[in-house]
Amino acid sequence: MASAAEQLAANFNFGTLAKATELKKRIWFTLGALVVYRIGTYIPLPGIDSTVLTELFEQQSSGILGMFDTFAGGAVSRMSIFALNIMPYISAAIIMQLMTAVSPELERLKKEGESGRKKINQYTRYLTVVLASVQAYGIAVGLEGVTDSSGSRAVFDPGLFFRASAVITLVGGTMFLMWLGEQITQRGVGNGISLIIFAGIVAGLPGALAGTLELGRTGALSTAFILILLVMAVAVVAFIVFIERAQRRILVQYPKRQVGNKMFGGESSHLPLKINTPGVIPPIFASSLLLMPLTIANFSGGQGPGWLNEITALLGHGQPLYLALYIGMIIFFAFFYTAVVFNPEDTADNLKKYGGFVPGIRPGKNTAEYLDYVLTRLTAVGALYLAAVCALPELLISQYAVPFYFGGTSLLICVTVTMDTVAQIQSHLLAHQYEGLVKKSKLRGRRR
């Protein structure tokens, strides 16, 4: 079966894609949904002055708002109806994952299968509404106090009505994106939530490339440096793809059993352990925590406490303390989140329940210790990989004034989402070719 699947995968071409009508419908639906999302990022929040906000976000581009604006495809700087983007839902999902490891009730729901998963998803949606409402109210109150250098207000008519309308609009935008992401997952290709974030990040790529080429034209960056940068970008993408696809496959053997005169079982399978189990969660957590003091200091306009200004100066992009804390937090969150999403004891118990065992390792406690031993070393390599990829853009910006984030969280998201989407397209094409082979075999059987 594996060789047949590999042969079919090798024969994929555009002709096969053209014949897969169901896949074409899914691709068109996905593209249409992403177009709707991009149009929504240009619809402004009612009652605001966009020119005043432009000046504000020029000052905040290096803070946490700049990072959120990158993920939202410019929706935050334009303060559109999708300004919150899908981030409240992602935060709620992460909180629910962490709570599952703490709460016995949620852990019991997780083990119930499909029905438990639906209940956890429902709780995640409720928590999304709560988080989005709190964030939207904070944005509305913050906007009422924003003024530009000439004294013009960002909100034309501040008050209770503006706050209520802003909260309803922003929360509605987040819930619509959550629904749109679920529709893409069910009726399109790929993970809908991931594709929405991917579309927001990629939307800023042409402007970033144009800015880099403009610096080359004016002489601020040399042509040789731009070429080296492009070669380095391709090398980093290839490195990320290699690491994200890398797995440690642990052999799992199942014993033979006799039923009557026949022998069953005796198969072997693999337990795949990824090098980067936590994905992009550690860089997002680390960036959010480190950029918080800088954002507060920018909002205070330098009038805050002296200790806050000192911390902000030490935590500037490219500063040694910032890089040390950034790398340290990435490594910490990589181990912490891996411990949350993968429990060696549960995995060992499940293997023991179904009669599986790792050759040379006793089932139960010894298997759990062995899995923990292997996973700890894989996570160490994965944490160093994340730290290297995310520290690279900080060095490029501080040392060479590269005008966009080369690498980091954005590149990790783009590469991983692209790989997942391509894998889903290949699985659809593979299923289509198998259907064609089955139909041909049926026709031949009827002719005979």
Give Rg in angstroms.
Answer: 25 Å
Content of β-strand:
under 5%
The CATH H-level superfamily of the largest domain is SecY subunit domain
Cα(first) to Cα(last) distance is: 26 Å
The helix/strand class is mainly alpha
Q: Biggest β-sheet, characterized?
A: 2 strands, antiparallel
Counted by DSSP, the helix tally is 18
**What is the highest CATH level, the class of the largest domain?**
Mainly Alpha
Number of structural units classed as domains: 2
Order of helices and strands: HHHHHHHHHHHHEEEEHHHHHH
Overview of the structural elements:
This protein has two domains: 25-203, Orthogonal Bundle (Preprotein translocase SecY subunit), CATH 1.10.3370.10; 205-448, SecY subunit domain (Preprotein translocase SecY subunit, Orthogonal Bundle). Helices cover 72% and strands 5% of the residues. It contains 18 helices and four strands. The longest helix has 40 residues, at 408-447. It is globular. Mean pLDDT is 80; it is low at 1-12.
